[in-house]
Amino acid sequence: MKTKNTSQRARTVIAAAALALMSSLAQAEFSDNVVKIGVLTDMSGAYSDLAGPGAVLAANMAVEDFIAKEKPAFKIEIVSADHQDKGDIAANKAREWFDRDKVDVVTELVNSSTALAVIKVAKEKNRIALVTGAGSSRITNEDCNDVTVHWAYDTYATGNGTGKAVVKQGGKTWYFLTADYAFGQSLEKDTTAVVLANGGQVLGSVRHPFPSTDLSSYLLKAQASGAQVIGLANAGADTINAVKQASEFGITPAQKLAGLLMFITDINSLGLKATQGMYLTEGFYWDMNEETRAWSKRYFDKQKKMPTMVQAGLYSAITHYLEAVKAVNSDDTQKVMAQMKKTPINDFYAKGGKIREDGRMVHDMYLMQVKAPAESHYPWDFYTVRATIPGAEAYEPLSQSRCPLIKK
Amino acid sequence: MNRRALWMLLLIALGIAAPTLFYPVLLMKILCFAIFASAFNLLLGYTGLLSFGHAAFFGGAAYVAGYLIKDMALPPLVAILGGTLAAAFMGGLVGLLAIRRQGIYFAMITLAMAQMVYFVCLQLPQTGGEDGLQGVPRGSIVGLDLNNDLTLYYVILIFFIAVFALIYRTIHSPFGQILKAIRENEPRAISLGYDVARYKLLAFVLSSGLAGLAGALKVLVFKFATLTDAHWHTSGEVVLMTILGGIGTVFGPAVGATIIVTLESQLADKAGSLVTVIMGFIFVLCVLMFRKGIVGELLELLKGVRPH
Amino acid sequence: MISVLGMPLPALLSQLVLGLVNGSFYALLSLGLAVIFGMLNIINFAHGALYMMGAFAAWMLLTWFGVDYFGALLLSPLLVGALGLVIERTMLRRLYRIDHLYGLLLTFGLALIFEGLFRDQFGVSGETYEVPQVLTGAVNLGFMVLPKYRVWVVAVSLTVCFLTWFVIEKTRLGSYLRAATENPKLTQAFGVNVPRMVMLTYGFGAALAGLAGVMAAPIFQVSPLMGSNLIIVVFAVVVIGGMGSISGAIFTGLGLGVIEGMAKVFYPEASATVVFVIMAVVLILRPAGLFGRESS
Questions:
Q1: In chain C, how many domains are there?
Q2: Predicted TM-score (pTM) of this structure
Q3: Residue A396 DSSP class
Q4: Fewest CB atoms less than 10 Å from the CB: which of A152, A393, B245, C236?
């Protein structure tokens, strides 16, 4: 056995030396001369409409536009994969991408379980993670790291925006219907804080498995509580089913539903009749101004659906990343991140956006209300913008941050 | 040196050289599942008991080991031991209840118990529910830093060889002979005076403990434990690996595990859900036509070819 | 407001009613499983996939052929039943001479194939299926508002369950079936075509699963994973009720739905496991199941 031990150790030493040599070679400008972008998303599951193939399209558009406008010296490649909303599949894929396929940045990551798992892998392998789809505020708090940017929104922003608005409207007593994983729990926690801070009361909550198609028994519990507002701390297909079934069981309109995270694709599925009057907080609306309309039309021509803030956000994030890469002329993680944090974001998605030390991309959010069918005059004319919530107000201030990177 | 030992050495050499050609993380996954399948085969192939809930031991041990490393900051060797013992203990409990019944009923009890373990894994705050136990550090064993994929690979290879040797010895021991006798004809074994229930229980505990070892090792490789590890789909997967490789053969399960894990990883990108279809096809084909599995059929072939 | 165990009565009753609705699905599915197990002595792991395909058949009939819900209610079970006939004839039949566990494994493999194919085509989130016009709207029961469609589900399930029980226990065809189960060789000697009975039985069980699928479509939506989520619970139901017992399957299915509903009121997280705890207890104390007869 002694022989095997020595030879095994020798092998490890040789392997270590080889690795050291290879990593020193990587100090040259670009790892293998290609900037590889990975889009890891939910292609066919509960969140595939709000992210999924649309996100991949947005990523492709970002790369094409960048190449056309900037004519960079380096090559850019996009790879994409379906993580099926499973943390282990996502983390394994990310690890494979980093180890084997030399992917430089992993993006999208809808579903907070996958995001939380992958940003750890990114930190371990020293690559960048740009999160657009996932919502949990833990990404820039307890689980923050210096290679991650949380781009589009988070549960604090949407819970706050919508929660505050509904409480002000008179919805004082709340009951939560929560998707039982990181995202739902985050959303419930953040919104509870808002409700209480604004003089409201939380009567209770019930957790449902993710994903769930039949939420009737949970909704009935919410109904039994007698709360004025039923907060839907879930998203995508779960929210859609909740709204449908609440109506079937006569729970609405006696009780109000608050969709704490809703996307334009949800409204499209449910229709204005079922959702009119609902408040929601989004980071992007295609019909806000000429710039957003122009970009969204290009997206719509290919996807036949209007973009959500996740998909539009991905375009913005990748463009900003590529611009940083060009500016520092390298795809080295630390250099690019420093450049990204230094540069403000001014595109159709955000004006005066800035990446904070905790990785949070702070930009304005919009409180919107769903139009009644009579008020809607053309397809996808769904929202009335009720208020613009400036970035500094929308996101949790650094003073309350639980991120270990923030020294107080 | 006899022929068998020569083959063994060749395989070990292959194992040592493998990471130069293939992605170490993939190889480690194969080794973990090879241990899992071999442990399962101890029960199915050599004792004749089909457990449809073995993922409970694999996944349960993964969570225990992960928790021990991450939340209690214990060294990986302790965690692996902890996971293995936890799985063996669970195996003892499940075995006690399940042994009383035969065939389909036995399988159903194991399934029911596994679902309960799954539920516990889902609900306990320590396990992280749907998100799973993430960010488990690898630590180091006897000074070797396991964060290096290559180092971890060789550590796991050593475990694999040890487990394999243990199973091999068990099968060829008097204990193993009695297990085979029970599989062939239980009433006769009873009439010969053997306490059949006790032997079955021992086999169950051994099998579940080793399955737990596989789970604990897997946590080190991927640095997390998730519900998938304890899901009944994983139970089905290990059955498939064992049947494909060859029930009741020594190398069968490892061969089956290698094929299935490799297939899954190669096809996942290109074929997506079709991977499940292919698995199903292999299952159906094996059950209908190749019940002896790859190694089993190969041995049959060789028996015919080699002059007696 | 009257309270029972700290829960207001309306809340309790409404969960019980919902539990009854779920129980109807359990009863219908476990009925099919029990019938198949009774005849063929295999646990049909493909049952969940057949249920799923019944739902998809309804969706496809509607989307591609414009056949409405009630048409699907008739056609879908026939289609799935036909598939069942093919499966039995071509594959299961070869396995009767060997260990019955291989039948279980075969059906498991089939389930993987079917689910994989549909998942590949339709993704995980699946398709929506609307409640048929005639059955929309709700009934006000006083303590809750119950959608008419759910009342319909309970009614149809109970009817089908009763009819099946009646046919098997009280008619001559049923007596042939039961005889073939007890003693196939003797029954064959009496001139009954046992292999054909077996094939038709599997087909019938599959058709029941398909029917359950059609009825589930407007409630649970049509998704490739709908069967696999449900099948494990249904196994537990059959085991608790007694593997070959028809009435056992029906009562246990309904009962378990109600118990699950109760659990959802008091300890929602446990509602998924209550079934398995009961199953373990029953297997230890009364291995043949609540209504079953011990068979060696």
A1: 1
A2: 0.86
A3: P
A4: A393
